[in-house]
Design brief:
globular, Aldehyde Dehydrogenase, Chain A, domain 2, 22% strand, alpha/beta, 477 residues, Aldehyde Dehydrogenase, Chain A, domain 1, seven-stranded mixed β-sheet, six-stranded mixed β-sheet, 23 strands, 2 domains
Length: 477
């Protein structure tokens, strides 16, 4: 069992949070909690550090710390994967992929530091700008507060705190209470790699009020949030004037399957994209719109693929779908699926709890368009299939939700692909791929209720800095 120590210098813990496995309820570790006084101390430390420019880390120093961090993570890759699996329930085979992505993400920030440059601003081109030279460079935006989600307990933390450190920002990070171990582990690794402890402090608050105290403080420069839309938009409303923010929420990702789609190619991808990590991914495949001529084949094949997936203990090497994070999530999803069936949906497969916090991989056909499973983010292993006759109809139905994130279209026709790209409400449209595709250097943005700002490591790195201009007037120019 891993028992982590307090990470805010000079602060005594107000209590300890026990972390349990979503698979079997076993206590696997503990982390300290801070109260209101501890939160104020953490902010004071981070803000004092930022205010003293003599203590800012040089760019070469930051690069060396990040290089060493990636090296340590590589030597601990299996430990990190096992820990993420035990606390979050993601199957070990997928947690290993997450760890590899996290290490690559650290290296990505080094590339950002090495390639970033300022801009030259045109001057000396008219009377107003005569005898002047202007250019920009970058500085950290200020203290970063990062609040994270449970579903990728290591890689999400990397996406929030590593760009902050690369940018030169002191950062306070609060992981999800279900999965804090990977976060505390990463902060320890950063410190082992040479990062001064004041530069990155992992905290677990003792109450919602203490968390909101952190968010509302005027000493922040940037707020990074990954989690539910309800919580994210509420916290944004509490930010002090001038505090920048980025919010990453969920969605109800649509896929349009055209009549000419290669079903043998696309359907295994959609099954993986919808059921991976028990559907607990913000861009999971949720709503599949198939042309009426192929909807029966699509539905039957998705059900067959769902039934073939190995569900159970996430620590088992062959498990493909593990448990949901909490028992109440199993109950919620079960209620939503039952409601959908009562409202007319056909339960093709699944629809029941199957083990320790597991829910069977489920395929629903033709849920009512106003059903919860059609309008809200399911965040569970459920794929809904709908028939359409005209492409315009499918696009309209795909857009008819409060969310807008990533979408997809399966087709062999360029015009169909481009029509969907132009008309789907989405920040990204995948062609012949699933909606959950992501590499960590691409832009990743939720629109409408799905979020604010642009994620992806290079984009977060830029957001956590200001571009500062110098204008020089000289008679010799």
């Amino acid at each position: 069992m891993n028992n982590f120590e307090m990470m805010v210098p000079g602060v005594s813990e107000s209590g300890r949070l026990s972390v349990t496995s979503p698979w079997n309820g076993e206590i696997i570790g503990t982390v300290p909690t801070i109260d209101s006084k501890g939160a104020d101390t953490a902010l004071a430390i981070a803000y004092s550090l930022f205010q003293n420019r003599q203590l800012w880390l040089s760019q070469p120093h930051r690069i060396e710390i990040l290089k060493r961090t990636a090296e340590i993570m590589q030597t601990m890759a299996e430990v990190l994967a096992s820990e993420a699996t035990r606390e979050g329930g993601k199957p070990l085979i997928d947690s290993r992929v997450e760890v590899a992505r996290a290490i690559d993400g650290v290296l990505n920030t080094i590339d950002c530091l090495k390639s970033q440059a300022g801009n030259a601003i045109p001057m000396n081109i008219n009377a107003a700008s005569a005898k002047r030279l202007a250019f920009t460079s970058h500085e950290p935006v200020g203290v970063v507060l990062a609040i994270s989600a449970f579903n990728h307990p290591l890689n999400l933390i990397v996406h929030q705190i590593i760009p902050a450190i690369a940018s030169g920002c002191p950062v306070i990070v609060k992981p999800a209470e279900d999965t804090p171990l990977s976060c505390f582990r990463l902060v320890n690794i950063l410190r082992e790699a040479g990062l001064p402890e004041e530069y990155c402090m992992a905290v677990m608050t003792d109450s919602i009020e203490t968390s909101e105290q952190l968010v509302a403080d005027s000493r922040l420069g940037f707020f990074s949030f990954i989690g539910s839309a309800k919580v994210g938009w509420k916290l944004r409303s509490k930010l002090a004037p001038g505090v920048r923010c980025a919010l990453e929420h969920g969605g109800a990702a649509p896929v349009i399957i055209a009549q000419d789609a290669d079903l043998d190619d696309i359907l295994p991808l959609l099954a993986k994209g919808g059921l991976y990590h028990a559907g607990q991914v913000c861009v999971s495949v949720q709503r599949v719109f198939a042309h009426r001529s192929i909807v029966d084949d699509v539905t039957a094949s998705l059900a067959e693929l769902a039934n073939a997936m190995k569900c159970g203990d996430p620590n088992d090497e062959i498990t493909e779908v593990g448990p949901l994070i909490r028992t109440q999530e199993v109950k919620r999803i079960s209620t939503w699926v039952k409601e959908a069936v009562e409202e007319g949906a056909i339960l093709v497969t699944g629809g029941q709890k199957t083990g320790n916090n597991c829910y069977a991989c489920t395929v629903l056909l033709e849920p009512d368009r106003q059903s919860k499973v059609s309008q809200l983010e399911i965040f569970g292993p459920v794929i809904c299939v709908y028939a359409y006759d005209e492409l315009t109809e499918a696009v309209q139905q795909a857009n008819n939700v409060a969310y807008s994130f990533q979408a997809a279209v399966a087709t062999q026709n360029l015009d169909t692909a481009l029509y969907c790209y132009k008309n789907l409400n989405a920040s990204a449209v995948m062609v012949n791929d699933h909606t959950a595709f992501r590499v960590d250097w691409m832009p990743f943005a939720g629109l409408k209720e799905s979020g604010l700002g642009v994620g992806g490591i290079p984009y977060t790195f830029n957001e956590m800095q200001i571009e500062k201009m110098l204008v020089i007037r000289s008679r010799n120019l």
